Amino acid sequence: MIRRSLLLINIDQRISCFTVGSEGVNCLVILPSRSRLYAGYVKRQALYACSTCTPKGGEAAGVCLACSYKCHEGHDLFELYTKRNFRCDCGNRKFTELQCKLSPDKDEVNSLNKYSHNFFGVYCTCSRPYPDPDDQVEDEMIQCVVCEDWLHGRHLGCVVPDCVELQEMICESCMNKNPFLWTYAAHLAVPGAPVQENEERGGESSTNLSNREGLVDDVIEPSCKRSREEAEPTCRLKELQEIGQKRIQSGAVFWPSGWRAKLCSCNTCQERLCEAGLSFLLDESDTVLAYEKKGKNNEQKQEGHDPLMSALDNLNRVQQLEIIHGYNDMKTELKDFLQRFATEGKVVTSDDIRQFFEQQQSRKRQRVDATGHFY
Questions:
Q1: What is the C-alpha separation between 118 and 122, in angstroms, rounded?
Q2: Burial tier of 75 (Cβ tally within 10 Å: 0-12, 13-18, 19+)
Q3: What is the pLDDT of residue 238?
Q4: Rounded to whole angstroms, how far apart are CA atoms 287 and 291?
Q5: How far is Cα 263 from Cα 258, in angstroms, rounded to an integer?
Q6: Cis peptide leading into 131, omega within 30 of 0?
């Protein structure tokens, strides 16, 4: 999944409604009820890491989107996009000087959470921040569906295919840790790496070769004429291994839409996936694409069609980041600006608001002139 800003609905943590008018951008945030906040490990949710509360050198910790607003406002946060099977750490023993305002009674540690260098604001095999102020190369970051780290396209060891937004990627490291995935890759993955044929196939007759190729179709798409009893004992992975078609085991692998449904789910393969911690690969609703689709559908049911969200979908990553960073900066500065009037008991006039936005535009031009980019 392509790296992009988290300007979309998080169905597990909040509902956001964005509107645009002559007065600017408004955001309505509805936090969930307390009973839903700490129910357990969430199947997939948006996460942040707070470098203010858990600086580098300490223990890695992640906080949910609701806590990022309620408990960590004004802190330095790293956006982690989404992670699977994670429980919010906010206020547990990793946060020695902070208590969660939403669910103060929490376990000291969430032992099933998985952490990586992402929680300290670095990504990819190059362990660099994102955005990287020292990187002048325009490059997409793509998330591995297994380790969920973000990697630069140029560090994947392969050519990134077209329409990557509709595909899932498994990095080379995760492929090598689970070598049986290379068998699937030879038959199911998006074309890109050269395919090596088994030497024995060179001497096969055209009839035998045709039969074997037909077997691949049967394995991947079992005939509807087969009975359930006939199909269940068959191990798709074993039959693919017997076909002998191989792929160069190098570089990341991209998988097309629906590839998870073609993985073998026999008892042996289920046990193999469970032991490797990869049972989620049999769950098509685990994908980030399914998460985003569910979130957008939920938004439309709750608030109706949002023209701003539709407009953002048509922008590239850099433009999306510019908008969300600009919005976040404006929201923080506007809050501070209005707080001064509230503290002094003054009335905010139209001239005050106009002056505020003129200062915003001036600072934006200064940043663009200085860096060539606006973040």
A1: 5
A2: middle
A3: 95
A4: 6
A5: 10
A6: yes
